[in-house]
């Protein structure tokens, strides 16, 4: 399947310089018969019929580089008959038909260059997919034994970092291609990397398995534990860093607490480090996943447990919540009604208490049922006055529900 996905990348990256030599390409075996391709005309994902030829196109010249075979086809059975039988079987068991690819936590993807992509596999192994000047190949980069499996991998300033399942941090220099053990905080193991050196150069912020915040200095190779009140426990998810400028030391890291609230860890030259709890949009709506992107250093997007998108923004010297709902694929009249409902202010904060919420939640029951795990685009309206849903992009399997988003946060 990786060959099919990266086939498009080949056509646009053939000019890339050849990376340093790697290990020989690892051979993989096909494990499933379920593959999809994105159909641009209908803007949907379509399951392909097997066997399927993998094509590589460079400068309008296409050639076959491989194929996906039907694993369940018998020797005395024709491909057309087998395909028809598969369709019939799916129709008969439609109620039990679910996604083939399981939802797993051990998954990460990061790009080093136009010719190199690093991923963690289902087994916890780390692989690099790179262009060797002729074709796309795969090179394994296992963590040192007996550290176990990798949870995530990321790249910062030409340095590759990885977190093992045992809670240890590793880094590798590109010239040596050897993993270096950065250990872990003295009193806990690492649960997740919060900030990837976006807030402080050479400083990596992580969350321990105890829900506390730590930082690792890549220069001194020392761990430091930040002060945190006993009742504040952070969730195991990434954060979003906000800085006025690259040269400024002031700024904030936004994270999600273990009880589903938005938390800010800010620093300025006068007061130093300070925790600010922003709470939730409504009392019965928790935040799930990780904080989304930040715009203008004053606007942050998050997802609620009701499946709606919320924006935390600075307005007239106070923080406010605004609900943007979720995208609709209904007729225009319903979309207009949803647009009017989606841009409402949710809760405002007093100057004395940033986490004080005045309003209760009042949602139609249909909101949570309309979540369908599709990729949607929320963009600024013309003139930059507000935000509006632009389009919806389908996925191979769309089985999202409110319980799915809740599971992401647990």
What does this structure look like?
- It is a single chain.
- The chain has helices at residues 2-12, 79-92, 332-342, 366-369, 402-409; strands at 36-39, 44-47, 52-58, 61-68, 109-113, 116-120, 126-131, 136-140, 150-156, 159-164, 169-173, 179-181, 190-195, 203-208, 213-217, 223-225, 240-242, 251-256, 262-268, 272-279, 287-288, 294-295, 299-304, 309-314, 319-323, 344-348, 375-380, 387-393.
- A hairpin with a 5-residue loop joins strand 18 (251-256) and strand 19 (262-268).
- The chain has 5 helices and 28 strands.
- It is mostly beta strands and 410 residues long.
- 12% of the residues lie in helices and 36% in strands.
- Residues 1-24, 90-105, 330-344, 346-371 and 397-410 have low confidence and may be disordered.
- Among the domains are: 2-96, no CATH class; 240-410, no CATH class.
- Strands 21, 22, 23, 24, 25 and 26 form a 6-stranded antiparallel beta sheet that branches.
- Residues 68-95 are annotated as: Disordered.
Q: How far from one another are the termini? A: 30 Å
Which percent range describes the beta-strand content?
Answer: 35-45%
Uncertain ranges: 1-24, 90-105, 330-344, 346-371, 397-410
CA gyration radius, whole angstroms:
24 Å
- Helix percent reads 10-25%
Q: How many helix segments?
A: 5
**Assembly type of the shown chains?**
single chain
- The tally of strands reads 28
- Overall, the morphology is globular
Mean pLDDT: 69
Structural class, judged by helices and strands?
Answer: mainly beta
Largest sheet: 6 strands, antiparallel
Region (Disordered): 68-95
């Amino acid at each position: 399947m990786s060959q099919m996905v990266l086939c498009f990348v080949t056509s646009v990256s053939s000019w890339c310089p050849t990376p340093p030599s790697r290990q020989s390409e690892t051979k993989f075996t096909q494990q499933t018969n379920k593959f999809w391709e994105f159909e641009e005309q209908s803007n949907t994902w379509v399951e392909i019929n097997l066997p399927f030829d993998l094509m590589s196109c460079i400068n309008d010249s296409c050639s076959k580089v491989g194929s996906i075979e039907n694993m369940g086809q018998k020797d005395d059975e024709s491909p057309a008959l087998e395909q028809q039988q598969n369709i019939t079987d799916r129709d008969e068991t439609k109620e039990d038909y679910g996604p083939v690819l399981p939802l797993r936590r051990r998954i990460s993807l990061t790009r080093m260059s136009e010719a190199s992509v690093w991923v963690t596999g289902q087994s916890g192994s780390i692989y690099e997919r790179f262009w060797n000047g002729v074709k796309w190949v795969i090179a394994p980069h296992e963590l040192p034994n007996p550290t176990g499996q990798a949870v995530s991998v990321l790249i910062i300033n030409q340095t590759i970092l990885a977190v093992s399942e045992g809670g240890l941090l590793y880094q590798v220099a590109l010239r040596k291609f050897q993993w270096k053990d950065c250990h872990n905080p003295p009193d806990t193991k690492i649960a997740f990397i919060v900030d990837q050196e976006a807030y402080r150069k050479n400083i990596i912020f992580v969350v321990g398995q105890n829900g506390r915040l730590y930082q690792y200095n890549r220069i001194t190779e020392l761990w430091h534990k930040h002060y945190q009140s006993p009742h504040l426990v952070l969730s195991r998810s990434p954060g979003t860093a906000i800085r006025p400028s690259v040269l400024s030391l002031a700024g904030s890291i936004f994270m999600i607490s273990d009880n589903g609230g938005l938390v800010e860890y800010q620093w300025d030259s006068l007061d130093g480090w300070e925790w600010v709890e922003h709470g939730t949009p409504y009392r019965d709506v928790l935040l799930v996943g990780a904080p989304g992107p930040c715009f203008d250093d004053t606007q942050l997007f998050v997802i609620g447990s009701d499946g709606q998108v919320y924006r935390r923004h600075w307005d007239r010297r106070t923080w406010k919540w605004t609900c943007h709902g979720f995208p609709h694929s209904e007729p225009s009249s319903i979309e207009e009604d949803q647009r009017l409902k989606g841009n409402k202010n949710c809760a405002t904060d007093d100057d004395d208490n940033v986490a004080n919420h005045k309003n209760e939640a009042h949602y139609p029951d249909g909101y949570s049922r309309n979540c369908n795990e599709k990729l949607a685009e929320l963009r600024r309206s013309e003139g930059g006055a507000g935000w509006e849903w632009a389009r919806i992009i389908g996925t191979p399997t769309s089985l999202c529900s409110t319980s799915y988003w809740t599971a992401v946060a647990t």
